[in-house]
Design goal:
This protein is α/β, with parallel strands linked by helices. The protein is about 35% helix and about 10% strand. The protein has a single domain, classed as Metal-dependent hydrolases (TIM Barrel, Alpha-Beta Barrel), CATH 3.20.20. The longest helix has 19 residues. It is globular and about 50 Å long.
Length: about 350
């Protein structure tokens, strides 16, 4: 069985990588930018290159979808680099190809707020995809970078689905029929996403779950089954939004960035000045097999469970990470220098 997680943001250590590998996790989309500008993002990429060298026995970078199969064969966790905001581009369209060449494969068009590309889900008015956003979508399609609308507002999400020539993803969110959080998605979005060939990664983050930390495995598993009824079995996976090994200051930074002088509390955070408690049945990568057990108890077949746990993401990434001419360009192809020349410092926002 493949286990592929559509989104995590953790303070990674050898112990966490070992835990994921030993649990049978084959690939994880990791967040390397929220509010960082291009310079800070390059530094973060450099830091990940250092991790790839230091922990080469445990992890490997994913450039093409087929690399996930290689990671499984080698007994390593494949790491997919992605951004939860478009801030690394600043206002330069050329940065899409540059960042793709350096390994980035997924980018959200907005993170809660209005961005240069699209409207975030916390804004009062949704103006849709901007002129610059249309150009970025076209360029992301060309190079093979997945458009992610997890934190975007409804109209912007629907426009991105319509504008993109390639299927898009919502890497970590749940249906609003399960829990009406701002970040969860309407039936209309689920329908259009599935009709266009896109993917939804179902979230284990407590604020996206009915009942929060008290959500049971059975309730989550039944939600998966209901989502499959809405979207079809081929368009649903997992995007745990698992966050490990951070203190509260990082959560506050995620919400507030540098755009506000006062803490911007997300759903539920104003009442609990700490990371929300995970459900008892999903607190780390070790618990992914528990989800498979829950899905079986909910009546899913082995074939359906394998698709949800990873095969759907594998198929999607295999089709998404190549350029429109069918090739995946790597740093080694465009430069005789090593990736080691990318700065190894952590971005200033961390």
């Amino acid at each position: 069985m493949y286990i592929i997680d559509g989104l995590q943001y953790s303070n990674w250590t050898r112990e966490l990588f070992t835990e994921a590998r030993d649990a049978g996790v084959n690939a994880i989309h990791v967040t390397i930018a929220y509010w960082e500008d291009s310079e800070e993002t390059l530094a973060n990429i450099g830091h990940w290159n250092k991790r790839f060298r230091e922990f080469a026995d445990l992890i490997m970078p994913i450039s093409a979808g087929t690399d996930i199969k290689t990671a499984k064969e080698l007994g390593r966790v494949g790491i997919i680099l992605g951004f939860q905001n478009c801030s690394p581009l600043e206002d330069d369209l050329h940065m899409v190809e540059t960042l793709h060449t350096l390994g980035a494969r997924i980018m959200q068009l907005s993170y809660n707020n209005q961005s240069l590309l699209a409207t975030g889900c916390y804004e009062h008015k949704d103006s849709g995809v901007t002129r610059f956003g249309r150009e970025v979508i076209r360029e992301m399609n060309r190079v093979g970078m997945v458009i992610d609308m997890s934190h975007s507002a409804e109209e912007s999400t629907l426009e991105a689905i319509e504008l993109s020539e390639r299927p898009i993803a919502i890497t970590h969110a749940n249906p609003s029929f399960f829990h009406p959080a701002k970040r969860n998605k309407s039936d209309t979005v689920l329908h259009e996403l599935a009709q266009s060939g896109g993917m939804l990664g179902l979230s284990l983050y407590p604020h996206h779950l009915a009942g929060g930390a008290n959500c049971t495995l059975d309730e989550f598993s039944r939600m998966v089954c209901d989502t499959v009824e809405h979207m079809g079995i081929d368009h649903v996976g997992l995007g745990s939004d698992l966050c490990q090994n951070w203190d509260y200051s990082v959560l506050e930074w995620m919400r507030s960035g540098t755009w506000t002088m006062t803490p911007d509390f997300g759903e539920g955070d104003a009442q609990n000045r700490d990371w929300p408690e995970q459900p008892s049945w999903f607190r780390s990568n070790r618990d992914f097999p528990t989800i498979a057990v829950g899905l079986k108890a909910a009546g899913m077949t082995e074939t359906e469970i394998e698709k949800i746990m990873g095969l759907n993401w594998l198929r999607f990434f295999e089709a998404s990470f190549s350029s429109q001419n069918g090739r995946t360009q790597t740093m080694q192809e465009v430069s005789p220098t090593s990736n080691d020349n990318v700065p190894n410092a952590i971005g200033a926002g961390r």
